[in-house]
Amino acid sequence: MNYIHDTIAHLKQTSPAQCEFYQAVEEVLESLEPILENSADYQKNAIIQRLVEPERQIMFRVPWVDDDGNIHVNKGYRIEFNSSLGPYKGGLRFHPSVNASIIKFLGFEQIFKNALTGLPIGGGKGGANFDPKGRSDSEIMRFCQSFINELYRHIGPTTDVPAGDIGVGAREIGYMFGQYKRLTGRYDGAFTGKSLLWGGSLARKEATGYGAVYFANYMLQDNDDSLKGKRCLVSGAGNVAIYAMEKLYQLEAKPITCSDSSGTLYHESGIDVALVKKLKEGARESLAVYLETHSDAKYIACADYPSDGHAVWRFVADAAFPCATQNELTEADARTLISNGCILVCEGANMPSTKEAVDVLLAAKIAYGPGKAANAGGVATSQLEMAQNASMQMWTFEEVDTKLQQIMKNIFDTASNTAAEFDQPGNLVLGANIAAFRRVADAMIEQGVV
Ligand code: GLU
């Protein structure tokens, strides 16, 4: 339809060189076709034109001094994308690949993901092109403090609530919260993903990975199947991947791979999650070190990856959980998964499948859980953390986990019912995008032209 073409053409002109952002927008707009065609209201209110333009984009300099006294300058970002459903909510990513396109694609996805949770949270995202790899603890602290020296004036428990993402975990949130508190004099829920010692929520750390696996199980249950006994490929070795693997074991499935920025680990008898946790959460070591304990495992260095994709998706398995980063699953990877008999792809990461890969997965009609639905458990549990902070309560692990399961079930039901309503049963991309869009767009209309 014309509006997709026109919107993308306009974005290319007004926001040049942001290919990841165009990719995220294109995917959403394509699936909105059936609802936009029949709604003069959405067109009259210029909902699409307003949706793709962030309400506010903050870009700033982050200067800091390393341990040898050298001065570095990074780029900091916070994109406050859409606040129709609540305060801006979304993580901060510290990674050398971060630029305006990456943060905008993540912020755009976040609007829809947050809407799907059914909770009162708007969409935002931020970060910096800072590489934490190899940096000392004091360097990380100084970077976080410098980052907050600018960002503190824009955030707060009812305005914008950052959390973690790639390169930002409880340690970084701690340093950022400390500096926020010092500058504002306030002790409030301006961040989520906090330490359990001072305002964090039980089960927040586990929530994204656990949530993605719950979502996968709901998809399978819909076909009278379950994860029990399934061999699973997982990519990544961060927070999402680790707790996805943990939950897979709890549901009697077997994760046989994981990966990091230098290579892929394959362990036929099942990944030793306790060891991966120790390597990654403790010493922050490469997965290659895993072989010192398990000599029967295999490690494939990045240099030996296939030229058209990622080694992790080339192993034979029943299910795949991309839990690392964007565009890590290519068209060739998708074809290999399907020809190897894979029946489910469930995304723990944000936009891990390329557009061509998504087309292949949808055409094959396997169970495909798009990230904005399947990985929404993290941000949903962040909202549960906000609720606990605002009411000065602390819920038990079981209470939070039960709510998380219910939220993931609701997201699955909403996406699945919406797909059926629009005559595309099983197409959760379409179902998730339309259901989320309706909630955001209707709120925008009710709030007027702002
Ligand atoms: N970074 C996570 C995401 O992509 C979590 C965001 C949050 O908890 O605010 O959804």
Question: Explain this structure to me?
Answer:
This protein is an alpha/beta fold. The chain has three domains: 1-50, no CATH class; 54-188, Leucine Dehydrogenase, chain A, domain 1 (Rossmann fold, 3-Layer(aba) Sandwich), CATH 3.40.50.10860; 204-374, 3-Layer(aba) Sandwich (Rossmann fold), CATH 3.40.50.720. It contains 16 helices and 13 strands. A five-stranded mixed sheet has the order 1-2-4-3-5. A five-stranded parallel sheet has the order 7-6-11-12-13. The chain has a three-stranded antiparallel sheet with strand order 8-9-10, with no helix packed on it. Helix 5 (100-116) links the parallel strand 3 (88-94) and strand 4. Helix 6 packs across helix 7, helix 8 packs across helix 9 (239-250) and helix 14 crosses helix 15 (397-421). The model has no long low-confidence stretch (mean pLDDT 97). The structure holds glutamic acid (GLU). Glutamic acid binds at residues 89-91, 113, 163, 165, 192, 350, 378-379, 382.
